[in-house]
């Protein structure tokens, strides 16, 4: 197994990213709204137009991705077979590089993500009833801010 590489994704990789998302999402969350593979691909392709998309690659395979824009992380997914290997953490650290404040949303029932983000210094700042998301699923906004340096 080769070392993990974090690199900028290419727009032509949107279909690969969409398949990774759908495989992971279908396994983890039965409540998600159904979409075709073409809809998923078009959805993720939009991320390239509004920010950066980073991928984690190992042995020539994309095993995770993170889409960011100014002040937000829109998506962070790692293939379920790669969980627990530090891939999400590596993607997150790349996404936070050079930023002072970042927000993101996740579903309230996504306890694994909530615990992960808490370990990485995010705090929960808002709970909703889900009325504004496609699934109508209660969600939570999390926020990370760069800690000021301690005086020397």
Question: How would you describe this structure in keywords?
Answer:
152 residues; alpha+beta; Aminopeptidase; 4-stranded antiparallel β-sheet; 3-stranded antiparallel β-sheet; 7 strands
Give a quick summary of the entry.
This protein has 152 residues and is α+β, with helices and mostly antiparallel strands. The chain has 4 helices and 7 strands, in the order βααβββαβαββ.
SSE topology sketch:
Blueprint: E1 5-8, H1 14-28, H2 37-50, E2 52-58, E3 61-69, E4 72-78, H3 87-96, E5 101-107, H4 111-119, E6 123-127, E7 139-145
Antiparallel strand pairs: 1-2, 2-3, 3-4, 5-7, 6-7
Verbal overview:
Helix 1 packs across helix 2. By secondary structure, the chain is of the alpha+beta class. It has one domain: Aminopeptidase (3-Layer(aba) Sandwich), CATH 3.40.630.30. The longest helix is centred in the first third of the chain and has 15 residues. It contains 4 helices and 7 strands.
CATH homologous superfamily identity:
Gcn5-related N-acetyltransferase (GNAT)
Average pLDDT score: 93
Pick out the low-confidence regions: none
| CATH C-level name | Alpha Beta
Which value, in Å, is the CA radius of gyration?
15 Å
| CATH architect. name | 3-Layer(aba) Sandwich
Task: Specify the number of helices.
Answer: 4
Physical arrangement of strands within the biggest beta sheet: 1-2-3-4
Portion in strands:
25-35%
The biggest sheet amounts to: 4 strands, antiparallel
Q: What is the multimeric organization of the chains shown?
A: single chain
CA-based shape = globular
- Quote the CATH topology: Aminopeptidase
**What structural class is derived from the secondary structure elements?**
alpha+beta
Distance between the termini: 42 Å
H-E string: EHHEEEHEHEE
Q: Tally the structural domains.
A: 1
> Would you count the extended β strands for me?
7
What share of the residues lie within helices? Answer: 25-40%
